[in-house]
Design brief:
The complex is a heterotetramer, with 2 copies of chain A (135 residues) and 2 copies of chain B (110 residues). In chain A, 33% of the residues lie in helices and 27% in strands. By secondary structure, chain A is of the alpha+beta class. In chain A, strand 2 and strand 3 form a beta hairpin. In chain A, helix 1 runs antiparallel to helix 2 and helix 2 packs antiparallel against helix 3. The longest helix of chain A is centred in the N-terminal third of the chain and has 22 residues. Chain A is globular and about 45 Å long. Chain B has a single domain, classed as STAS domain (Transcription Regulator spoIIAA), CATH 3.30.750.24. In chain B, strand 1 and strand 2 form a beta hairpin. Chain B is globular and about 30 Å long. The mean pLDDT of chain B is 97. Classes of the chains: A alpha+beta (135), B alpha/beta (110). Chains C and D meet through helix 2 and helix 3 of C and helix 1, helix 2 and helix 3 of D. The complex binds adenosine-5'-diphosphate (2 copies). The site of one adenosine-5'-diphosphate has 13 residues of chain D, from helix 2 and helix 3.
Chain lengths: 135, 110, 110, 135
């Protein structure tokens, strides 16, 4: 199972994207789905840096990507603050451009892009985000 | 990443290449703000060179649209790749921004 | 030979492919006249598909320019190949018609 | 010396152009000059059909193209009305678009495009236009 650790900087994002792209493409995932996984992982990393660690350079993020029978499984771990995603409201798009609060689609996109998303916080293991995308 | 701006009679074309993510979106944000500060409020964002857009990029685009509209102008986008288009659709961008198939029709819409 | 016309907000793009000579220039002439008859007087003639222009073609372009100007509009041309550009220069076309390097700047000039 | 006879119709023009292009290109003339020869020949043919024959379908036009040491020589013959090119005024371009008489650059272009141009009329041979373009 390919695993890598990335420093919690936004400059890691293109490297993470390439890492996912290579493994998912070689595993046989089609281009559109590879893009969707890359985007979900990018959103997750950005949130961890910004919200769990509270900024860049506060900690590493571990990524593992595992092609399994039904699809590709992604596990992302960090040692930052934990949070409960169920408390986060969905973004609205039924509003005019002036009313639009221009933030907050990351979590929403992750759920839309991936077939399964699970978030767990554990005092010893830290935060673990597990995502799954079908072939 | 590379941002270029070109002024036409009725609109400004901004094009960028590479990724628009948490790392690079502030530069795009600045480019849009500069156009608006120059008194121009019609923007064509040419995404022909863009190969990845995270939600940060989407917000930059929507913020720029907000500012254009407040100045009685408009931002439109063009040359969006299929993968990016799908994610923009998920985020509901088309409710707020016109998407043109090519830059001529985008520029020609002003 | 194939002539297409596309309407944008402030101009009509006419493009033609193939040769403009004594045989084909009447069709181009008709295409320009149709645009003007529809009340449109700003024309971008996109020559990206044109590979030969005889003096008959030059006259058709200049006649169309005359008609556009009389209707307070303008005809401009774009995407002119090097060989054609040299012959248009010999005929003095640039004194009467603006030549743009690409269609975006041509459309964006209106 | 490649020679061909074309019926005096405007639909012959693309064929004449291809004929010139192939021979001049194969003879080693560069693309820009080949285009200039094609244009000069096109203008000459158009004038013959329109002015010497007074319309399409009135007679044939003979073309010969000969690569010689210094360049390429073109000879065009027709059996139509003869004329004296010296009597034809040069087109003006020092005028506004409204004043511009939008006809009459064919002869001017032929002279500009070719290095030598000679026109002869003869009761027995008809009209002979000889043009020459240096390599
Ligand atoms: N990994 C995380 N750790 C802590 N808080 C998070 C995390 N991911 C998201 N959040 C919280 O959820 C909110 C919504 O996240 P998101 O939809 O990605 O939008 P944004 O990050 O633009 O605010 C964030 O503002 C933050 O409060
Ligand atoms: N081959 C020819 N035979 C007879 N008259 C000719 C011939 N070529 C040119 N002319 C005369 O010269 C004039 C100018 O020719 P040209 O410059 O080609 O312009 P146009 O053919 O558009 O009038 C013509 O109008 C015609 O009177």
């Amino acid at each position: 199972m390919p695993t890598a650790s990335f420093p919690g900087y936004f400059t890691s994002l293109p490297k993470i994207s390439e890492f996912i792209k290579e493994i998912a493409t070689n595993a046989g995932m089609d281009d559109a789905k590879v893009y969707q996984i890359r985007l979900a992982v990018d959103e997750a990393f950005t949130n961890i840096i910004e919200h769990a660690y509270g900024g860049e350079g506060k900690g590493d993020i571990d990524l593992s990507i595992e092609p399994i029978k039904e699809g590709i499984k992604i596990i992302i771990r960090d040692q930052g603050e934990s949070f409960d995603p169920d408390t986060i409201p969905q973004p609205e798009c039924d509003v005019s451009i002036d009313e639009l609060k221009t933030r907050g689609a990351g979590l929403y996109l992750i759920h839309q892009l991936m077939d399964k998303v699970n978030f767990e916080s554990d005092a010893s293991k830290g935060n673990v985000l597990t995502m799954f995308k079908r072939w | 990443m590379d941002i270029n701006t070109k002024q036409y009679k009725r609109c400004t074309v901004v094009n960028m290449s590479g990724r628009i993510d948490a790392n690079t979106s502030p530069e795009l944000d600045n480019a849009f703000k500069e156009v608006l500060e120059n008194g121009k409020n019609n923007i064509v964002f040419d995404m022909s060179g863009v190969d990845f857009v995270a939600s940060r990029g989407i917000w930059v685009i929507l913020e720029a649209q907000k500012a254009c509209k407040q100045a009685n102008g408009e931002l439109v986008i063009t040359n969006v790749s299929d993968n990016i288009l799908k994610s923009l659709d998920l985020a509901g961008v088309k409710h707020f921004v016109k998407i043109f198939p090519d830059i001529v029709s985008a520029v020609g819409s002003f």
